[in-house]
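Ticket #4471: structure export looks truncated?
Reporter: QA, pipeline team
Priority: medium

Steps to reproduce: submit the single chain below to the structure queue and open the exported record.
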Amino acid sequence: MKRFDLLTMLMYGLDVASAPTLRNLFMGYESWLHYNRLHPSQLSKLKTGGWIEKSPAGDGTTWALRLTEKGRLLALGGRDPEECWGRSWDGEWRFLMFDIPQGNDRTRRRLYKWLRSNHFGCLQKSVWMSPDPLDELDDLLHDDGTSSANLVVMDARPRLRGGEKNTDLAALAWKFDEINRRYQAYMDFAKKGIAVKARPAAARTWVSREHALWTRAVGDDPLLPDELLPRGYLGKKAWQARRRLLKKAAPMVVALEGD
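Actual output as written to the record:
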């Protein structure tokens, strides 16, 4: 667990959305030499695990550690919010409708798990939707004996009535009230700030709490393209609050290794 705390704080001290280098993290901090002298084995293990990598710093005489894409995504909670919000949308929803025969519970469970892990919205129990193309269903249902007649995928542009917009449809399919409550809980936590000279136990508690609140909020968020985000969506405000908070967390790295 101690290694995970260290890795997490290394990530938290970075601006993971722009320049995720450990050289930037410790530039100006006296703790850099202290840290580098005390914990070369930890850095080596993180590098071996594929979380960080060593690269030239740009001036030819020094080096920097950078988060790999694997490490960067872990720091972000599994997905890059800005990339998700900024992706293009072709104007078509993908509707997945199914009628899995009774007795085929394994297929049903696999399908529900896949829908949730891919952040589909639910219009009805057997009608789900996504703004993104579907490419993995053949592999998902392979060898399960499910006929294509039991599962239908349609690309469609719904005929919206009475001034309704695609954002209104999105608001029906995803539980944005609950998503916003979780983002608000994160922002309330972020407002309290951090104690940069916290004792190791307090620092680890803070890390665990911050990580849990963020992943809980972003985990159920479909991170829809900008043009589909419903009115009152708090994800972007929470993300900016997290970026500001994480930039202040670098000094806690030393606190985590103090006992």
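Status: closed, not a bug. The export was complete when the record was re-opened. Leaving a note from the reviewer for reference: The domain at 92-156 is CATH 3.30.70.240 (Alpha-Beta Plaits).
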